[in-house]
Model the fold of this input.
Amino acid sequence: MKTLIKNGRIVTAADEYVADLLIDGEKIVLIGAHLDESGADQVIDAAGLYVLPGGVDVHTHLAMPWRGVETCDDFFTGHRAAAFGGTTTHVDFSIQAKGGTLHEAVETWHAKANGKAVIDYSFHVAITDLTDSVMAEIAELPKIGVTSIKMFMAYKDSLQVDDMTLFKSMQVAAKSGVLSLVHAENGDAIEVLIAEAITAGNHAPIYHALTRPPELETEATSRAIWLAQVAGDAPLFVVHCTCEGALAAVSAARLRGQHVYAETCTQYLFFTKDALNGTADDPFDGAKYICSPPLRETSDSAALWRALRTGDITSLSTDHCPFTYAEQKALGRDSFAKVPNGAPGIEDRLYMLWNDGVLSGRLTPSRFVELVATNPAKMFGMYPRKGTLAIGSDADIVLWDGAAEHVVSAATHHSAIDYNLFEGRTVQGKPVKVFVRGQLVVDGDNLMAEKGSGAFIHRASPLLL
Amino acid sequence: MKTLIKNGRIVTAADEYVADLLIDGEKIVLIGAHLDESGADQVIDAAGLYVLPGGVDVHTHLAMPWRGVETCDDFFTGHRAAAFGGTTTHVDFSIQAKGGTLHEAVETWHAKANGKAVIDYSFHVAITDLTDSVMAEIAELPKIGVTSIKMFMAYKDSLQVDDMTLFKSMQVAAKSGVLSLVHAENGDAIEVLIAEAITAGNHAPIYHALTRPPELETEATSRAIWLAQVAGDAPLFVVHCTCEGALAAVSAARLRGQHVYAETCTQYLFFTKDALNGTADDPFDGAKYICSPPLRETSDSAALWRALRTGDITSLSTDHCPFTYAEQKALGRDSFAKVPNGAPGIEDRLYMLWNDGVLSGRLTPSRFVELVATNPAKMFGMYPRKGTLAIGSDADIVLWDGAAEHVVSAATHHSAIDYNLFEGRTVQGKPVKVFVRGQLVVDGDNLMAEKGSGAFIHRASPLLL
Amino acid sequence: MKTLIKNGRIVTAADEYVADLLIDGEKIVLIGAHLDESGADQVIDAAGLYVLPGGVDVHTHLAMPWRGVETCDDFFTGHRAAAFGGTTTHVDFSIQAKGGTLHEAVETWHAKANGKAVIDYSFHVAITDLTDSVMAEIAELPKIGVTSIKMFMAYKDSLQVDDMTLFKSMQVAAKSGVLSLVHAENGDAIEVLIAEAITAGNHAPIYHALTRPPELETEATSRAIWLAQVAGDAPLFVVHCTCEGALAAVSAARLRGQHVYAETCTQYLFFTKDALNGTADDPFDGAKYICSPPLRETSDSAALWRALRTGDITSLSTDHCPFTYAEQKALGRDSFAKVPNGAPGIEDRLYMLWNDGVLSGRLTPSRFVELVATNPAKMFGMYPRKGTLAIGSDADIVLWDGAAEHVVSAATHHSAIDYNLFEGRTVQGKPVKVFVRGQLVVDGDNLMAEKGSGAFIHRASPLLL
Amino acid sequence: MKTLIKNGRIVTAADEYVADLLIDGEKIVLIGAHLDESGADQVIDAAGLYVLPGGVDVHTHLAMPWRGVETCDDFFTGHRAAAFGGTTTHVDFSIQAKGGTLHEAVETWHAKANGKAVIDYSFHVAITDLTDSVMAEIAELPKIGVTSIKMFMAYKDSLQVDDMTLFKSMQVAAKSGVLSLVHAENGDAIEVLIAEAITAGNHAPIYHALTRPPELETEATSRAIWLAQVAGDAPLFVVHCTCEGALAAVSAARLRGQHVYAETCTQYLFFTKDALNGTADDPFDGAKYICSPPLRETSDSAALWRALRTGDITSLSTDHCPFTYAEQKALGRDSFAKVPNGAPGIEDRLYMLWNDGVLSGRLTPSRFVELVATNPAKMFGMYPRKGTLAIGSDADIVLWDGAAEHVVSAATHHSAIDYNLFEGRTVQGKPVKVFVRGQLVVDGDNLMAEKGSGAFIHRASPLLL
Done:
């Protein structure tokens, strides 16, 4: 099957030009001027459209259990939403059970994806219980295509690891071609602040933000950076960086030459902690915005936007971690501390960044592509198969109408979640067609993919930028 | 005329993959797997070679007058050397004569290039005498394809401008789509230090470095940055950044979100000011290394290398400004202050950065391409025509043997200069064939281009990264 | 004549304790518990009062000519105001006339003070025209008791010096035991901004602030610091530091070990540039607040307060430079650019800092004394004669009622100026009696000193902190 | 009993002047010119000598148990050494036993001091086991004169506390007028590095330094600072700050206005980690220099010296923690990990700082006094009783011969330790006589004090600088 995409404006992390592109089977095989249509099975005229590599979202939580509930998107509904947003590959977090092995964690997540996937996917593994045998497992992870581990510095008494675990994990990861990821917040201090808030009767959603102040993210980010340095300049990827202080620590490390990288997530660019105050009608509406780290201040968002341009933020993810408002967030109606932590966003990433980043002039289209596709693919060992438009790469392609205006709404989005953080915003930029490995998965408003058509991506070691 | 390059490893600022590439006339028209050879006039097998965009060197001084002498490379010998080094486009500095106009300066430089060029070229214009009519000229420069101006903060009583000139120039440049470049050293203090050295009888080449300490570059860099900020965030490009302090000022500005960029030049990555002490046999050998700003310390070089990777340095240039050792540098045998300022390097840039940057693991091949070709083309308004391998771009192409070992020497290089800073170093990486707009200009050891075949590039406004 | 002050709370930069203090003639001769009253000519009970060293204000402009007018306080009215505010010594700026000598400048200022002084005084000299003979004069200044020079980096075409003058002056000062002071604003850029504002018809007082943005103070402060470093770590005292950026440059230099010091002035702690907008009734009221550098933002004031405590600001001055509102400021009714630059404050310094610094808990009483008396005396070569309460020191003493509430007003202050920046503020802290060299000069609301009783202080080289 | 000290050069943190000083009983009662000798019981001519307040050393470990041994100085030999060095007050660390109370710890240390003390003393308490009842105890500590607590961030599985303990302790301390002290090194990572060194067979003393790299101190210092900020700007005193990175974190916090203070200790100013390599004759000699944090690099020492002058280091202590070389250090002959951690220095502090600080011109005598006496007395709630020469203060006085040359040696020092870090150095500066509360305790080479004459100092809350 050969598909010829004609006259589109091709964008890569480096380039932007009008040309034709030919897909043969699952791969991109030809890019050129005025390609011959004769051999193509189908010809698509992309005049006036951008031709983008499919988005790569390296921070999602589909079907993730959390204190008795589970995120409301499984690998089908989550993938469907991703695809409609222009994301064709994601990396989800498999989480070691206490007492369990890393391999079991990965197997458990494979089972979640099996038969449901409509985009491509891979897994990180989060370490929660480091024994000698788990240490040995880390070094073996690349064999099963898992080349990134995550350590939580927050969530005391559940996911949180101590510094010894963090440090030893980084050491072995550095030697094994595995990237170390951290959720950087000081869980010990947060635990104290939460207990104090509860004791004081402060239960409203805003206390989620007030009990997780940015200083505690700055601290933990700084700590992870220094530990990574001592662990042999272990490559470190700081997930969901949200505040100026943490960003300053990342920048300083990069200036020193350390292999430190950071992502931020869409919501931190658009909202402040004021959102947690809810609405006049519904104070609990703030619970929709409960995610960790919490939303910050306008000055923090501004700093993140600057770093997206100048390079100290390497990529943009979503931390898609959807809990329904009506049923799941509602579990915390009597206290913020019981509200499931997480916010949705897997579908909104590309158009939000396009609208406020590219159309505003903050980012070039190439930098946009670098942030949402190329850099995450490189950092997570999926390049050149994923993340770009190059000969031999997977034909994960988004035909993007950069001017199409649409209104974001839970009524029309494709996740199972019952709300959308960006509800009611009119934005420009939208996929017209989305291909995964040459197959059309989204065509306008229609999902074309079969359940189970998405494939697991066996990842290589990170390509360190 | 169609040329098919087969099986090469194509590298852009974003990508790296094996494919075939077809040139039709002056342009790249097709990139793909297993392209049909039938329509090609010639087929070149590039298996085992890299296919790189031709280098873009935005900092050169060919046929430049300097206190009664002239740099020893004209637009033919300089271009020849550039081409053999893999550079296919350069931007030279035309310099306003006191009392003259900017347009006259550009015309003068056009005359230097006419009939001699074998690679493509363009011009900046250096402002030395800012009158109201010159202010008006700045706004008109884009019409003649000149979209960058340079102000010297050093060379008191000759090239140096005062802060009022600097500031006003930046203001009008910012409004006119023109990029402001600065040579950032405090010329006032340097003038005092030079006079003191001379009075004290300190004439050896090393005093060139000692009278231009890094603090004075840090100061001037910081000054230019703040003035650019007040001038409406005027885009600022700091040429030949050499030291940690100046780099820190650039980094801080970028973190604040200012549109500040810096280049460094090859020599600052490889030598320290110790080189100015000369050799045991010939203390005056140090004069070969007299350039401004001077060579610095090992810690400065290390900082520059780090910033090449992490992004605070945007591109690598040469500041090729060749004066022969035997005759021209010799004018300063009795005092460093009379030594013509400048060092050669137009031919050495790519292989030196490849050898010590890419092969050492400091830089990916893509980052290499970004530094020597893509970013300078973008920053100086020549993209997408120059600086990349994309459909529709000029077929400025280097077939690069990344492993070819060779010894750098004045005996074999192609500049008119009688010495080479890297004399005797064995390095890997070398062009096998070089094309300019589809024409083969270098084939192994042979120059294939006709004099005058190089073209002036009418530049657009900078694409601000 | 012996005066015994009993039961007061003595405060020095180090200490705070209750004791008796005996003055014999002009000197402090005894401090102790329960001193014998028998030998004293007079005994003053200071129970409940603080006994402070007299304030030292090293930044004033009395009887200073400025574009055809003169500051409205001469050495009598200015001294009277100072004395009522608890300041017993000041250092005024004598200013070199273009073409004149430094010694002539000092002589001119001596003539202004002669016969009028009621507190002690000394002079800096501002260099405006640096010739070789003036260079020679700098080295001779200590012989006439002048150990500080000032260079203006602003006021293009009048007071401003170029960097060569600045640098050479610093060099010779460093070798001569003379402290270099700078007014750090980039006058070149300011001149352009002022001209633009005028051209645009922007004449209101607020444009004074808008044409002197903080970036231009940060720039100049940084420049002076780097030049001082290259000039042999020439001791540098940055006058009227007003903004976070400049302060950061000072802090960074101090951390590097450079001998850099900064003062701020009272007004920068209390007002923002909003004051230049005037009042609803009188928009031109903003002219009262026109001083250079201009008032800044709340965040800048906050940074200055922090640095007063932690040490990166060495002392507090007033930059008392009074022009009457009714007649002198009014010269600029049609344009901010014609408003005489300067604000009054010589009387207000101690109680404003006491009220908002000590009583608020920001500063200890000892740090208060250090900032207003001890450090300026040390930095300007008047210690131990001035600036402290120690055996052998001049008996410059303020009996201070730390709780006395009073309302600041031009109606009751003692300067010739017709307005007070702090008009209407109720503050605590006030001198009850003030002694200069053992003589009572202020007693409650009465001036007790004779005109001409104040003495010139022949200053030694700075005691570098 | 009245003692008159005549003609000495009195130095306080603010002042320096020649005067007479009268002691009556335990207190200073009079300072003045030419005091009457008639009422004095004894008159001492201090002409040519400095009269200094007795040194205050807030970081010592006398009779401290450590893995089965005990530091070799008890409260008699340690005090004797202190007194001969000019230190008249110290604060020792009482350490909570696991399962024990803080009050028991203080009681245990009282018992160690009882009947032995010859100088004055007080106690901090180190928290090792934080329960709710211990939390309650912290708030009660001021009642027993203990106003500082210490938390160890190193020594995993023995003294180390987790971040929750650290944070909660800071919170309660902040509310109780208690100062929080931290030993800032990341004990988790250190533990891993030590285990790795041992596994690798790296047992020499130098591995003590190599397993405790400065990054781990920088990290922990930064962590403590951020936690203190979130704990309500809890006043934080970082003990034994040794490296540039940690110092930078302290400086940044101070610039932000946080109440953060740091001390360094004498050895860090004079030695680098090279000392741990031992001598050619005796490689194990390096064990003498094993203390934690370890000795660093020359650049670190230089930074500490700079900060002593400019203020980011608040005071100088010794961390006197003496283990004999012959017997105690020897326990670790087969491995650095078994060498008791600690170095002596209680006697050497004043003359080492005088010789290399004051005589070299780095510090004024006043700053010297501030660092070794006044600031520690203020920060630890003993001012104005201790730390200065003021009316009403304890007559803790050192008559100091600033020029007396002597050779430092274990053969002549007064501690029980069998080596001296400064062995063989010729230095200037030495006490001639030392008084504690008016009693002569050292007279030349003779100890005049009776055992048990030293008194416990019931401390008030810190006077925050």
